[in-house]
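Example 3.2
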Amino acid sequence: MEKIYDTLHMGRALMDLYANEVGADFVDIQSFAAYVGGSPTNICVGAQRLGLRTALLTAVGDDPVGDFVLNFLNKEGIETEFSVRKPGYRTSAAILGIQPPDKFPLVYYRENCADLEITIEDVLVAPIVQSRVFQFAGTNLSKDPSRSATMFAARLAHRNGTEVVLDIDFRPDQWHDPRAFGVAVRSVLPEVDIVIGTEDELNAAMLLDVEQMKLTHSQVSDTKVTGNVEEAIAALLAMGPKVLVQKMGSAGVRVHVKEGDGRIQQIDAPGYPVEVFNILGAGDAFAAGFLYGHVKGWGWYKSARLGNACGAIVVTKHGCANFTPTMAEVEEFVKGRGGF
């Protein structure tokens, strides 16, 4: 079937309120700037700005916040036909403080949340088969009906020649028990081609043996899950995915590619040093750049370098989706920094 869209992204879309008082303790914040956020939405916007044709499968409430989100997405040129309204549910929100270099408190408001009400019926009318890439976030799996709809979408894509990309997106406070996160993620891995995540996310996703599962709720919730990341990567790739992209912050990324003989090739793509203003959204900007390069056939190294450049730009900005770069902005940024 003809591939109409380069990428289709499924998951949360919300309003982000970012503190204007940079460096202030959360209790001293006086005002906020309103942006659009949500990991799959950020990635969708970033990919569209770089030049891909993107669509978003999400849900918003029949409320003014939903109007705010859809208005922004429509202005960006993103296909929102499959971003549905859910009467009786609310468009979610997140409130964020900015205390660089390493403190970025984040509070979600996702009770009665519209985007967790995406159903299999919503998936059936979305262009899963007509897209080259289907990308979703691990948070989609936290509750039904979004969980079963996402798993259905991944299987539909995988069986019809649409590449499936999972951004692990570990948000422990979105789960009734964060240890359940790994159970859900592992259940969908056989349908996934490419996985993107940090070391902490990989360890959380691959809690496999009894001793690891004895970690307390709080130990897993702080996202600093200990473990042998190389063992976690090998176990994950054995479950179906062909490629794992390990995000390593300022060090860049390491792409793990499963070869036909079972060996795992590692490709290191260094990052671009910048002064950090706000880390939130940098991983989504990376994913947008990486997916652009991958769809365009750039190869793993160059695709990862483009992703790193997008991430480096966004960590110097105030928000997420609203600040993802265009290709012209990325090309200007990498001049004198080694290019891609």
